[in-house]
Amino acid sequence: MNLKTQLRRLNLFGFSACLRITDAVWVVLLVSRGFSLWQIGLAEGIFHVVSLLCEIPSGMAADLIGRRRSLAMAGLCGCISALLMAASSTFLGVCCSMVFSSLSCSFISGSDEALLYDSLVQTGQEANYIPLSAKYTKIQTVGRVLSNAASLLASMLSYVGFYLLDACIGLLRVITALSLTEPTVTETQAQRQEHPFRDLKQRFLEHIHIAAGFLKRRPDVACIMLADGLVTLPSYLTLMFLQQRLSELGVATMWLGLPIMCISLASIAGVSVGEKLHTEGVWRLYAVIALLVGCGTIAAGLLPVVPAIIGAMIASGAINAWLLHLQKYLNSQYPSDQRATLVSVNMMAYSVLMVGASPLTGRIGDLFGTAGAGLSALGMVILLTGICTMVTYKKRA
Q1: pTM, to two decimals
Q2: What percent of the chain has pLDDT over 70?
Q3: Are 53 and 137 in contact (CB under 8 A)?
Q4: Which CATH architecture has domain 3-175+197-396?
């Protein structure tokens, strides 16, 4: 394997996977078509129900038939999602689009991280995981920043135009994924590459047993996965409901991408800070991060435009610093043959919480007449978990 070529192509995939030009405006676009915040929150909840159901099977598929094939499927599902959204005029159509969007994310989650880590293992470079993972995250963030800047196209593109352009980007993901090399670091992986679909049902059942056994033996890993799911909820919910809150405060639709872009840039700063952090323990880091994320999310929900954006930026930066160290910790614990599956289990914890948090956040916003009310409630919950974790840590120390 040529590691430089592999990393270059993987970085291109990560960039295209985050280049979703509708992300900064999709809530406002749906509101402008007559959908309520509760409906939009429900659609996002459906996204996470599908993610919950498919997260682990998609991770197993990546382990059993290849991470490269899984990433290609992600691009195809993203393309279908965009086409459905462009063609639909009903809430049912919106929900169908969210199903394929969720499938796209499920095929990516775990697959790209496992492909990166095992590519490093195969070439003996796993000690360089944090700087290379940080670079990958920054490139992904550049894709998000450009996606946010696409809100400036609101005066030129229709609703349909936004999603047709998104479909074309989905095809780029398919092509890039198929150009990757599948890493093989165990004999089992080599056999799977030769015969990816042989005895698939039996291997699928064995895979479930092995992965479940790992989590049963390691309840500490399962607990940190659940904590990760909670503290990362604002990573998307803040972007989602802040769109509408800024509109309520008088920010025009075409300018919504700029504050969202600032939040994405803050995630790059968070990754840069995370690279330099030397943590004494994952739970101690969680306590600090939860305090920052909680306060930032509350600020995004309660304060005027500028401090609300700054609060969201603080939350975004803290989350990305956290993820960099969490991923290193978890990957060091996972067996290679089940790596994508167990990463997907981690993502499933996030999806379980999002199934309830997304519509509930929207419902609180509807009840109080402002999208910021739901964000404030979410921030309070995360802040309390950070305080409790810090108190518990100090008592044990």
Answers
A1: 0.64
A2: 89
A3: no
A4: Up-down Bundle (1.20)
